[in-house]
Every structure is written in structure tokens, then in C-alpha cells.
Design a protein that fits this description.
Layout (H helix, E strand, L loop, with lengths): L1 H45 L4 H26 L5 H17 L1 H16 L7 E4 L4 E8 L3 E6 L4 E5 H6 L3 E2 L5 E10 L5 H13 L11 E7 L4 E10 L3 H18 L30 H13 L3
Antiparallel strand pairs: 1-2, 1-5, 2-3, 3-4, 6-8, 7-8
Length: 299
């Protein structure tokens, strides 16, 4: 009886000792983790990262160090940590596979922040996804964009980072280009003067670089003029939509014709006196009537 009691007291004493050692080491580990979290937070704040990124990074470092301190405390206290290490490795592998997309979006958000291809307030276009609109916010895992038709779209940061990004506001001015076709009978110089009157009379069209209008192509049905001018980026889309209609109205007032597509068609009819397929001058209407009568089954 006395021996059993002694062994019990000895076992209790051993576990109390191990518990005290575990608690002491864990408390030291927690204190070190808190110190590291403060250092990480201050360092990231000095680098002017978004506060959401700073919070997540500091918390991840804190909890990772606390977990490591717990495992070390168990080992120092004399507990067998082999099972914990094995279970931790399995959990780590499972979490790694499960969080691939989350980690990819997180790091893509960091790359977007450092690279700065877009910022809140910019109007951007993502051609691969067919999205154009204003950037409202860039969070840890996604970018929120309000499209031109009023929809709010949440795009994963990984998709944004891998996409072609056209920042429509990255420069203070942008160029607008039109292709205007006029008939061959109209005067090119009169068309140029009419278009320049519209451009030079608009308050948002820049005088430098000066607007340009020149012949780009002699097309099948029209002489194609290229119109180029610069406007403030913030008003680019508004001016682009407005001026094309004004140019059309000014060309109408100047008597410059904008033609419809035209084609010249040659018809060859077979006549008894001629060779098959030979175009025979004279009485073309009769040949056409015969052809139409045959096509419609008339007699």
C-alpha cells in the first residue's frame, strides 16, 4: 500500500514538473511570438502595405510561432512529440493542398500592390475577361471593379495578375482615333476643314498635340480619312462618344457625302449568235428579262 502511494505521488510529481516546465516554456514562446508580431507589423506598416495585408501577415506569424512554441515546450517537458509531428505534417499537407487558391490570390494581391498596374479609382480594361470599369478596392484575395453598366464584379487577384491590364487612366491624356469614309466625288480638303472645325471648337480637345486628319486608304467605296486628336484621360470615353456624331452632322452641313458600300456587277448572257459566255452588246434588257423568266418559271 505504501509503495503504491509512493509511486502515485512520484507519478503526480513528475507530471506536475512536466506541466510546470511546459507552461514556463510556452509562456516564453508566447512572449517571443508577441514581440515578433509587433516587429512584423511595424516593418510592414513602414513599407506602406495595405492594413489588411499587415493584419493577416502579423497574425499568421504570431500563431505559427505559438504553435511552434507549444511543440518545443512539449519536447522540453519530456513528452513524446512524435505523434504531434506526424499529425502536424499531415495537417500541413492537407492545408497546403486546400489553400493553394487562397495562397495564390494572396501573393498575387501582394504582387499587384508592389507592381501597381492599377489602383482604386482607376478605370481599367481586362480584355481576356471582357471587363471594363472603375477599380473600387483591392483586398487580400480579390479586386472589386464597378463596370460601366453599373455591375460590381469581384475578380480573384490571381486572375487579375495573369490578365492583360489596360489602365485607361495611367497617363493624363489619351488619343482618340476615328476612321471616316467620304465619297470619291466629295472634296477631301472640305472634309478635313469640317472635321477640324468640330475638333478645334471642343473645349476638351487639346491644341497640343494638334488634331490631325489625313487620307489613310482609298477603299472600294470611299476615301477613308484617319482622324486623330488628344483629350484628358478622365474625359476620354465621354468625348469619344460625343464627337463622332458632331463630325457626321458637320460633314452633312458641308455637303460631304458619306457613301454606302458600292459594287459594280457585270452580267454575261448567252446568245444564239455569240459564243457561250460572251457579252453581246445590244438589247441587254431582253436578255435580263429572259433570265428572270427562266428563274421564276414564267413562260
Amino acid at each position: 500500500m505504501a509503495e503504491s502511494l509512493a509511486r502515485l505521488l512520484e507519478t503526480v510529481g513528475v507530471y506536475l514538473y512536466k506541466g510546470a516546465v511546459f507552461t514556463a516554456v510556452l509562456l516564453v514562446g508566447v512572449a517571443v511570438s508577441m514581440l515578433v508580431r509587433r516587429m512584423v507589423r511595424r516593418t510592414l506598416e513602414l513599407s506602406q502595405l495595405p492594413m489588411a495585408v499587415v493584419d493577416v501577415a502579423s497574425k499568421l506569424s504570431y500563431y505559427a510561432l505559438v504553435a511552434l512554441a507549444g511543440v518545443i515546450a512539449l519536447g522540453v517537458a519530456g513528452f513524446d512529440v512524435t505523434g504531434f509531428a506526424f499529425a502536424g505534417s499531415l495537417i500541413g499537407v492537407a492545408l497546403g493542398f486546400a489553400s493553394q487558391t487562397v495562397a495564390s490570390n494572396f501573393f498575387s494581391g501582394l504582387f499587384l500592390y508592389f507592381d501597381k498596374p492599377l489602383r482604386p479609382g482607376d478605370v481599367v480594361e481586362l480584355p481576356e475577361m471582357g471587363i471594363m470599369g472603375r477599380v473600387e478596392d483591392i483586398t487580400m484575395f480579390s479586386t472589386r471593379i464597378t463596370t460601366l453598366d453599373g455591375l460590381r464584379v469581384r475578380v480573384p487577384n490571381e486572375s487579375v495578375f495573369r490578365s492583360t491590364i489596360k489602365n485607361l487612366y495611367s497617363h493624363p491624356v489619351r488619343r482618340i482615333e476615328y476612321r471616316v469614309g467620304i465619297s470619291y466625288r466629295s472634296s477631301i480638303e472640305e472634309a478635313r476643314r469640317a472635321i477640324l472645325r468640330v475638333l478645334e471648337g471642343h473645349p476638351l480637345v487639346l491644341a497640343e498635340p494638334a488634331p490631325r486628319v489625313f487620307v489613310e486608304e482609298l477603299g472600294d467605296s470611299a476615301v477613308v480619312l484617319r482622324v486623330m486628336f488628344w483629350v484628358p484621360s478622365l474625359k476620354w470615353l465621354e468625348v469619344k462618344w460625343e464627337l463622332l456624331g458632331r463630325i457626321k452632322e458637320e460633314l452633312d452641313r458641308a455637303g460631304v457625302e458619306i457613301p454606302f458600300p458600292q459594287r459594280v456587277v457585270w452580267l454575261k448572257m448567252e446568245q444564239g449568235a455569240g459564243e457561250p459566255g460572251e457579252a453581246v452588246p445590244g438589247a441587254p434588257a431582253a436578255g435580263l428579262e429572259d433570265a428572270l423568266a427562266g428563274a421564276t418559271g414564267g413562260s
